[in-house]
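Supplementary Methods S3. Input chains for the assembly prediction are listed below.
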Amino acid sequence: MDLIPIDDAEDPRIEPYRHIRERDLIGRDGLFIAEGEVVLRLLLSAHSRFRPLSILAAEGRAATALELRAEAERRGAIDLPIQLPIHVASRRVMDSIAGFPIHRGLLALGRRGTDPEPAALLPAGPALVLGLVGIANHDNVGGVFRNAAAFGAAAVLLDGQSCDPLYRKAIRVSVGAALTVPFSRGGSADEMVGTLAGHGFEVFALSPAGPESLHDVAWPARRALLVGTEGEGLPPSLLSRLRSVRIDMAPGFDSLNLATASGIALHAACGTVIRPSRN
Amino acid sequence: MDLIPIDDAEDPRIEPYRHIRERDLIGRDGLFIAEGEVVLRLLLSAHSRFRPLSILAAEGRAATALELRAEAERRGAIDLPIQLPIHVASRRVMDSIAGFPIHRGLLALGRRGTDPEPAALLPAGPALVLGLVGIANHDNVGGVFRNAAAFGAAAVLLDGQSCDPLYRKAIRVSVGAALTVPFSRGGSADEMVGTLAGHGFEVFALSPAGPESLHDVAWPARRALLVGTEGEGLPPSLLSRLRSVRIDMAPGFDSLNLATASGIALHAACGTVIRPSRN
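Predicted structure tokens for the full assembly:
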């Protein structure tokens, strides 16, 4: 059946999976861990920017893992490592590897390679780019990537205070979009704005106090949306020198979840990007 | 200090709090449990549709509980029970009551009273109403209520398959909006649509396959948005006889979180409701 049984959580062949609880594998090996069938399907598809190195499946999910690999090989769309290894472990070994119950029973190890420079991600022509400043919550980053994919953002730029989109939980919440939407991470918000402006992007800062309503913006062809945290928002020094747009809300309850706010703004800004026929 | 110490999780004075893990207190006593400082502040304010019966605070949060009550009494905005009781328990008792660690250390018991009939919630004049069909996930219902409050929805109608907005977790995710936005729950989606149409609302069904783009709708004064689950969506029998609108998305990744989708649709539909000067 071409499966590698693992009976011992200390087996060196699954060593990288034992770090699943760590938030940040970057510095270590340039690896990441993806979780669940939907995300693994994406990682094994041509849409993924990253390559899988191996799969670790609970016994009950071994058949699914074989199917996923066979399908990817049949399509021939990506270079899989010669015989992408599938390790199979009992639920007990699986849980002890992760330190918590992994309900979905399917993990994959991926190689992230080197993160690109922001400038390398900015395409020519009409484009929508999203910038994240200080977003340290993995759920929020995952949710934002899901929206970025849905609304055709060309890239997501994250400042150095924002968290890693390739952390397992962020990938899961993004439903795999963190594997498909190009991103860079590092530097300051000022540097990010400088790069965007230098490449001809008009930068719109999202803020509840923005003088311009999202409903009224005539979007330029090259547009970037900048989003800060739910609590603090974007730094005043940035807001004061950028075009700042607000989401109109009912009086007295001006509170939106960050992912929802990003979705609303991306939906408003994406017009010509995903539907060239309208403005 | 006017606090009631509780040394025993079995103390009958805190009996209702012991059911915090139950999803549905409705049938039992018409009670609900709210959690956390932000939500309690709202429950103790004039914005809440419901009255608090008591507070249960961990030792470290007793001062906050006293402050919250004093502030509500000072405002005199609501009828508090004569001396709203504040029970104080050790973290150990608190955790054993809940069966899990309550990190926020502040709970309140509220009385829900009788849920109104849907028709009683529909105001005269221009209004936006939200209808939920089969939304059984408490996170989603909470997220949707947060958006309904942000965009000035007059009411949320839930069918009988949708879950209770007054379940603790839904209230928490809604940041208290489940306590402020009027709602009804019960009956079928067909009955809901009938009630809305009978009161002069045009009903728009949100669906990825909708022939009309949300960008292009000229919203009538009385408008209702109908939202189904992330997976199944709304029943085809409903979609076929309602005006169905879609959120335009990039090709190949037409997946949005339900709360985000509801936020985008409410933002598009709320125009004249929260900003009478524009269409």
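Chain B has a mean pLDDT of 88. Chain B is about 30% helix and 20% strand.
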